[in-house]
Input
Amino acid sequence: MSCKLSESAIFAIYSAKRIADAIGTPAVLKEMLFVTLFLMSDMPMHSYLISKGISEDEIHTKATALLNSMVGDQEYSTASLSFKVNGKEEDMITIDENIVYLLDQAGRIAEKHYHTNMIEASHMTGAFSEMYPKEFMTIMNAFIPSIEIPESFEDWKEEITMSDEFEVPRELSSFLTVLNTKFSKDSQECYICGRDEETKKLVRVLMKTTKRNAVLVGEPGVGKTALVEKFTWMVVTGNCPEKFKDNVVLALDINSIVAGTKYRGTAEERFKSLIAFLEKSPNCILFIDEIHTMLGAGACEKGEMDLANALKPLLARGDTRVIGATTEKEYVKYFSEDGALKRRFERIVVDEPKADKVYDMIKNQIKRLEAAHKTTISRELVDMVIFKASCFNYETKNPDRTLDLLDKTMVCAELAGRAEVIEQDIMDNFDVNYKKFENMSTLAKMSTAYHESGHYIVNFFSGELIERNVRAVSIMPAEDYLGVNVFEIDRDMTPSQNKRYYIQLIGSMLGGRVAEKMCSSQLTAGASSDLVKATKLARKVVMSYGLVEEISQNRVYEIEGKDDMLDREMAKKIDEQVNTILEEARKYAEDLLNCKFKHLQALSKALAENGMLSDREITELFKKV
Output
């Protein structure tokens, strides 16, 4: 037998030996071993009996009577069994030869169903039920006579002995988590809605015969992990293609797999164990969040084997499927450096959902929050939460920022003892922000309002910026900013990206600065920040995009963020062209704001009074201008 006995299996055999010694039998019989499994409180059989209303005393009484009736004077062949405990060779135990066969079958069950070479006591239970079904049924009926025995033995096996739960080998359990256990087979509705297109793409990649690995690329909070959980729900409930129905999705924690591996070779041993397990488990799909951290993970020194290099041969063979998740920035930075790794993954972009799609995406999660906080919330107030979250937490992304605010809002209702969320519960989360706004001087409010209005108007009336929609404008003090235009990028629209496009885009960046100077003759730190962004983009137009013929007729001067060596004369020419681009963009913004000055004044006044406005409110306002 190539498999090893776990502590629970060893304990079961020793317990059976004590029974044999008490009865006076020279060998441990298979019936003794099996009944022992009923007596062990941490075994599935014991838990099953307790769940059927049988007390501990009854279990022991019936087990004793059962043993006396089954052992009798039966004939049996014996064998010897020895194993090490705490590194020491134990005395030989004389056992019924049938137990040897039982342990062989338990080993096969452990390898086939649980993908481990460690025999647990529960595996021995399964082996007994398969090899001795009549005895199994007799023993079950002795313990539970009032329950009708199913016609099919498979019913017993499914209900008691052969759990469908996938077991991770003990040596891998510290860094591998079975995601399937988060969902029930009977689950009628997935709490993660939407993302249908991305899910289809993921399924198509995983169904390929080669290079069937996907990397989900998107900003933190857009729902990359949730997308994997939705796929897992589909697998568990059977709402998936046939070839996924017996699959197990495992999450790998990279921090845990390299934890404590400061000594050379320690990490490699763990990598080898993981790879060996995956090679024997073709039905497993591995999910690695923050997958870019594989590069360098576990290497003590530069050039040593890291997790990424350890997995490459496995990924190349196509036997294992891997889903990764990372941000656009990290994907470009790390995957671009490792072409071999990059070509083994197909990139799936997970964009932030549009504001009008957020509710449909989180409606089932809202139900879970309502149940947890014992309160309900109307659709109208959910829309308000989406709006407020975008204005006060613009640096984060939907749907995460909306769910976070919904959770905090329901806490406010729960603490107040209300069964239904009211508007004040939302506003309670922003007491400090509103207080700061009220304490702002009229001059400060108007200066900020001009700034944000300038951004909005240049963007709104620029015909080239077709993909950039502003869903809200706020001058409410937030944690990381004073005012904000809440942008939403429409991925269905394709801008021209010619020089005129970039002039208008840079003009929209400078629009706040221009409007502030036009109306208040002052500039704030926010205006300086805009100038930094505008200058960086202008340099790209000149050096990277090749849109200025005087400079970039035959080449570009900036590749992957690094400047080539420039002589003083060329550096001067580039600097002049950057200044020309910025001046042209500033002039464009100034002319547009002069043309739309009434819109600028009306929007600034409304913002100073209200603090924030939605795009619908601004559209209605502009109709009156």
Observations:
- The chain has four domains: 4-161, 170-349, 355-435, 440-624.
- The chain has 27 helices and 17 strands.
- The radius of gyration is 34 Å.
